[in-house]
Amino acid sequence: MPCKNCREKPVIRLTNSNIELCKSCFFKYFEKKVRKTISKYNLIEKKEKIAVACSGGKDSMSLLYLLNKLAKKREIEVVAVAIDEGIKNYRDLKYLKKYCKENNIEIHVSSFKNEFGFTLDQAVKKIKNINPCSICGVLRRRLLNKAAHELKADKLTTGHNMDDESQSVMMNYVRGNLERSTRLGPITGIVKDKRFVPRIKPFYFLTEKETATYAYLKQFPVKFIECPYSAISFRGEVRDLINSIEKNHPGTKHAIINSFLELLPALRNLYKESKVRTCIHCQEPSSGEICNTCLIVNKLKNA
Amino acid sequence: MPCKNCREKPVIRLTNSNIELCKSCFFKYFEKKVRKTISKYNLIEKKEKIAVACSGGKDSMSLLYLLNKLAKKREIEVVAVAIDEGIKNYRDLKYLKKYCKENNIEIHVSSFKNEFGFTLDQAVKKIKNINPCSICGVLRRRLLNKAAHELKADKLTTGHNMDDESQSVMMNYVRGNLERSTRLGPITGIVKDKRFVPRIKPFYFLTEKETATYAYLKQFPVKFIECPYSAISFRGEVRDLINSIEKNHPGTKHAIINSFLELLPALRNLYKESKVRTCIHCQEPSSGEICNTCLIVNKLKNA
Prior knowledge:
alpha/beta, Rossmann fold, 47% helix, homodimer
């Protein structure tokens, strides 16, 4: 089938609507979807400072490119924030730094090593009974928020796509961890705590296939490799399961996201009483007496 | 490991709590769980007439046995209702009828052939674009409700277990069919329509493994075979996926059910405005102008 719009040679078939698009129409479709998500959920307002969480991977590179493109039009200020977790043969911020330099984008890099005194590789070797992704997720979120807060950013944006989100939704459901899902959605809700920079996800309605195709066709200098720890994660398991349903029933990821968005206001209402406390060690916001970051850091000190 | 309670030879390991029980302690555990579910969710009240939906399979046979055992104590009246869908080499109500006769239980049998003029096998051959389970589910629910209503039963009870329920929860979620989930739970809610006999599920907190073990050890004369159409169903697919997560993460089914029950009041509140209409053809309750039963029956007439 030729491109649905202009009859040119197609580059992608969209799984949900089953239409095919050529390169130029796909770019238009992709960028329009991002703009629509931003305006529908009021993700970004004029003159805001937006910190873009950059891993150097395909999704965040596309996000940085697109937001930088929008910057002039919407009078927003874009700054890149990156975390070096210390994962050998994987994390590589070289291209990201080069890209930011060439495009005059300010970049702020924090590292696990500098902030906590250990790399993720070192932490994983020392703590055996926690999944690497759990350690990394907690520490990375802390540093991203810290950087965004210090840079006085109004929003912190991540490149999470529909696949990431549908996995998170399902992970929380099958783990009986519903309260965690109140933090999901195109923009974080509930927590009206000034110490948290609101997180937004402009790629919320784009699938992994679409974000990967976009980055590939835009020829961003990124590596399409997976984190070495992802194979042993619960997320990887749930991803494979959702992909297997999607294969037989195209549109499943969209349906999961739609179900979730229908439910989200009720869910946030259900847990609206949950309080944000202050960690007795580091004075950062926490759900318990000691925050997860300090729990991990202390565990490592005593390991 | 010996039985956790009495040190006898164990017959089962409970996946969620990781304890092992002997035959006699397992029977106690199983029956206590049923009684607790009934009292916690107020499933059955004194002097009620309970219609037990019986397929002749393991779950409904155990349910019929247990409710009949409870009948005297709770002053309830128990009547069996069975549906013969017309599935060759599968549906067999011989043992069920014999059991009811031996135990003085009234039994009421309806059949697709008598009520609609065709067996499920005939319907499946004629209508190609609907999943057999969808046809069967709609028609069976209609006949069960009709029988329970005609018998003036206060409740209609089914042998649905935790596996069935966690599958339904996930199926509705990944299909974007959340409103359907408002009908799930240990007892049907929302619809306060006299034409619907409330449905209850005393095995709600028991896994398939537990109900199968119970029926097997009680030596009920049932066949442990699967419906020939189940292999091609979406339910079968979701069942395999949940089982694969449960295998790596024991307790997943319990977590899904707990998440769901936490959510259910909010979900029912979300859809409380949904109206029950009256089918213009058969005057039975319906969500649309024409009920699903009539849609299927008409499709078959015109096929």
